[in-house]
Amino acid sequence: MEPVRVGICGLGTVGSGTFNVLTRNADEIARRAGRPIVIEQVGARRDNAECDLTDIHVTRDIFEVARNPDIDVLVELIGGYDVARELVLEAIRHGKHVVTANKALIAVHGNELFRAAAEQGVIVAFEAAVAGGIPVIKSLREGLGANRIQWLAGIINGTGNYILTHMRDEGRAFDDVLAEAQSLGYAESDPTFDVEGIDAAHKLTILASIAFGVPLQFERAYTEGISRITAEDVEQADQLGYIIKHLGISRRTDEGVELRVHPTLIPKERLLANVHGVKNAIEVMGDAVGPTLYYGAGAGAEPTASAVVADLLDVARDIATHHDYRTPYLAFSGIDHDDQHPPILPMESIVTAYYLRLLAVDRPGVLARVATILAEQGVSIEALTQKEATEGELVPIIILTHRTREANMNEAIRQLESLADVAGSVTRIRVEDLDDA
Ligand SMILES: NC(=O)c1ccc[n+]([C@@H]2O[C@H](COP(=O)([O-])OP(=O)(O)OC[C@H]3O[C@@H](n4cnc5c(N)ncnc54)[C@H](O)[C@@H]3O)[C@@H](O)[C@H]2O)c1
Ligand SMILES: N[C@@H](CCO)C(=O)O
Ligand code: NA
């Protein structure tokens, strides 16, 4: 059969990994695809010493790749929102299929890109965009197609998990571990995307669409990062039998779909609590299959390339299939025209348990006043511990609550912070049991 001709745009961490995996495993890949997958052109600002570009047609103008009539598939690995959007739209206009690792692009511009691609009858594949090498998109979209998905929860940012792991195990400083993750090629070009939860929210947005059949709605995701996690909270969580992980959680309720990224206390014995370093894992609960777990490298050159090349294999197999008979981009047919899908819920309406840490003046009646405020908001306490005074007259109070509405907790925290007995702000970290795991 005719080869599939690929143009790779961007020759950084993932671009070089993709180039090398495609080249090294060319024979194996051709046997799987039933035809060779060949690199016809590379668009890059500069050569990359990791790649042997002898005999490769290299251009400094990536848009040349998008317009090259000898290219069947453009692989977008430049990252970012704007130029990547222009590049992908240009490739689609020229009838090319697209493979991308760019979650920012898909989460923010995906609805527009899929519309354009559907009009041209071309594939847009993005397995590498979520959890790097873990085939979670394919699993959700195809392997779990029989299920009504109930919830999914995952560690979906490798850099953040790498930082939390090394801070906890080695007592190292945040900035020091972040610099290491950057040097290993895990971090986004703007690492605040990793540490403030934006990258995880991009990925969660994509997972939720595929799990629940809702259009991509990144702007509705609740996003909180790991930059305010303190050693004190890590220690308190440990004593209570929990570990703090940065999770993306999406859950179907009777009212709609939760879409939230935040640090979370999870019981130490859960599988997700034992996912460390750059590894990612996503737990998915389906009504028929029950809990399933997907684990592996969430970032890095060749793990991510593994997903990019798997998408190229899918393109090679589906290229001759009519668009109407291909797997839909977001797993459900007609998400765009279907207004039957559930709404994304505002954060105030989610229901979860909470860990609270506050500093109070050590005088009679303080605990009663704290308990009264919580009771008036309908928040019931599972455990309350008053620690030894550490900061002058102030004593830390640690509270674990039962499940309650976020709106009630917001009001309780507002009232607690206005008490004369309470110093500074109240730390709040959500707690998930991940039942049924
Ligand atoms: N690094 C990872 O582990 C990882 C994992 C999954 C997904 N991703 C995604 O993959 C994409 C690429 O990430 P990366 O880590 O390889 O980044 P990178 O910075 O290492 O590589 C990007 C490359 O694109 C080039 N580039 C950017 N704009 C260009 C332009 N206009 N013309 C030509 N070249 C241009 C840059 O020079 C750079 O070499 C991003 O969307 C990222 O979110 C990365
Ligand atoms: N910066 C991302 C890359 C993988 O998407 C991470 O650390 O998870
Ligand atoms: Na993936």
UniProtKB/TrEMBL annotation:
EC main class here is oxidoreductase
Single GO molecular function: NADP binding
Q: Where does NADPH bind?
A: 103
One Pfam family name from the record?
ACT
Identify which residues the record assigns to the active site.
203
Binding sites annotated in the UniProt record for L-homoserine: 188
Q: In which pathway does it act?
A: Amino-acid biosynthesis; L-methionine biosynthesis via de novo pathway; L-homoserine from L-aspartate: step 3/3; Amino-acid biosynthesis; L-threonine biosynthesis; L-threonine from L-aspartate: step 3/5
Q: What is its EC number?
A: 1.1.1.3
- SUPFAM superfamilies with a match to the protein in the record: ACT-like, Glyceraldehyde-3-phosphate dehydrogenase-like, C-terminal domain, NAD(P)-binding Rossmann-fold domains
An example Gene Ontology biological process: threonine biosynthetic process
Which positions bind NADP(+)?
Answer: 9-16
- Catalytic function, reaction form: L-homoserine + NAD(+) = L-aspartate 4-semialdehyde + NADH + H(+)
Q: What's in the keyword line of the UniProt record?
A: Amino-acid biosynthesis, Methionine biosynthesis, NADP, Oxidoreductase, Threonine biosynthesis
Q: Which CDD domains match?
A: ACT_HSDH-Hom
Decide whether keyword Lipid biosynthesis is in the record.
Answer: no
InterPro entries linked: ACT-like_dom_sf, ACT_dom, Asp/hSer_DH_NAD-bd, HDH, HDH_cat, HDH_CS, NAD(P)-bd_dom_sf
The entry's family comment says: Belongs to the homoserine dehydrogenase family.
Q: What is this protein called?
A: Homoserine dehydrogenase
Naturally occurring in which organism (per UniProt): Kushneria phosphatilytica
